[in-house]
Amino acid sequence: MGAIGGLTQKMWAAARAKSDLFIMPMENCQELPSQIPSDMTVAPVNNLDEAIDAIETVTAGGKPAGIERCETP
């Protein structure tokens, strides 16, 4: 998995589409904007399995690991 371009624009587009979960690569942690849509959970992931886990967690009513993962070295 690698970083994506246009992170901020993609995040706000997802918010306008009423998404409550935004999955992003861990490689984008340094680009995380200071303002995140208020009703959105951002789930940084290392691989597809973690992305699927985040989706399943939200679907089951839980909250996946969020941007606090970006603060972990």
UniProtKB/TrEMBL annotation:
InterPro entries with a match to the protein in the record: Lon_proteolytic, Ribosomal_Su5_D2-typ_SF, Ribsml_uS5_D2-typ_fold_subgr
Lon proteolytic domain ranges (all copies): 3-54
Signal peptide: none
Gene3D superfamilies: 3.30.230.10
Domain of life, source organism: Bacteria
Protein name according to UniProt: Lon proteolytic domain-containing protein
